[in-house]
Amino acid sequence: MENSEILALLTPEGLRLLDEVPSYGSGADVLRVSAALRKAGHPPALVAAVLTQARLRQKARAKFGEFADRMLFTQDGLEQSTRLAVAALHAGRYRQAGIERVTDLGCGVGGDALALAALSLEVRAVERDPITAAVAAFNLAPFPNAAVEAASAEDVQLAPDEAVFLDPARRSGGRRVGADEWSPSLDFCLGLLAERPTGLKLAPAFDRTRIPAEVEAQWVTAGGETVELLLWSGPLQREGVRRSALVLAADGAPRELTGGADSPDVEVAPLGRFVHEPAGAVIRARLIGDLARATGAGMLSEGVAYLTGDVPLDSPFLATFEVQAAMPFDERRIARELRERGIGRLEIKKRGVDVDPAILRKRLNPKGDAEATLLIAPVDGKRTAILARRVSPAA
Questions:
Q1: pLDDT (tens digit, 9 = 90+) per residue, 195-234?
Q2: Are 49 and 57 spatial neighbours (Cβ–Cβ below 8 Å)?
């Protein structure tokens, strides 16, 4: 949203109109609602601001649930904000460490600060952009134990033992920017991590070689998507833990694998009756070997993040597929197999091979009422297509 639109919303008229505007879906709905609001005498600029914010609230429900309907958002702020269920886990880490006061540097729209405040921690939320800071102040208004400051993270004076949460801005103008362009800078963030209790939120694909050896690195998968990497230091990290994979299961409960280091892979096994795909957090944390040993599965291929075995596995850390057919990777043969089985709904997954699933789908042109998953990976050193039935949902 433009700054002028946010300012228009932060008025009694703007907030009242935003709460009254009906939900809308299609472009035709937008035009209908917009026309009705203008006919009622509301200024066009305010109508545009309200409709944009209503759309952002609809999108935000995926992260914030019903709380989204009482919050304000910016586009970049929503994109980078933490899902409420995950933010609650962040806040719980501070609570468990006995920390009572947290400064959230670069708080964005205030999602993590909101979770911290909800646990009765004293929260100091700092945001460089004044408009985004105003949005955060609105979102945190129900919590008297939270205060918002418009300032640069680098300019904030911190007490010697003050705990910090950091989520550096990794988007600018609607696009992702590299680590050297983050705000605050990566060097500043790593400096705080070394000197005080700090939780540092990063993208899950962050370069592992830049992770300090002495901190705990925790990757998080939620809703089947690997959403973040957290670096924890001081009393926020756990003794003996350097790598962890946290998965929010379908029931919303967190499940976690931990390790003192990257775990070595197990030996390669012949393709069995089932193929298992570890959750993204497990893969990123390089704990596949520990997961394989705990479940009795083998590696499908060296260096490829698929496991295999002859028994189905019920684990929140992986998804299981039952093998229906396996063949050398040949598009004509795969297409023939799909036709014979009447498979029209096809999920395509690949690891360790140079295949574009979107292009392959067009070439295969699956048709029919049946559904299946096509797994493409090296087996015995050869590109192999494995037609399978999904047994468990995505981890």
A1: 999 999 999 999 999 999 999 999 999 988 999 999 999 9
A2: no
* Region label for 365, one of left (φ > 0), alpha (ψ between -120 and 50) or beta (otherwise): left
Question: Which tokens belong to 238?
Answer: 């756990």
Report the pLDDT value the prediction gives residue 182, as an integer from 0 to 100.
Answer: 84
For the four alpha carbons of 167, 172, 175 and 178, in that order, the dihedral sign comes to negative
List Cα–Cα distances, 245 to 86, 100, 220, 360, 389, in angstroms. Answer: 13, 26, 6, 32, 26
CA distance 231 to 93: 12
pTM over 0.85: yes
Partnered with residue 32 across adjacent β-strands are none
Per-residue pLDDT tens for 47-91? 888 888 988 999 999 999 999 999 999 988 998 899 999 999 999
Strand partners, 198: 164
Taking alpha carbons only, the member of 144, 86, 74, 150 closest to residue 112 is 86
Q: What does the angle CA 139 – CA 130 – CA 83 come to, to the nearest 5 degrees?
A: 40
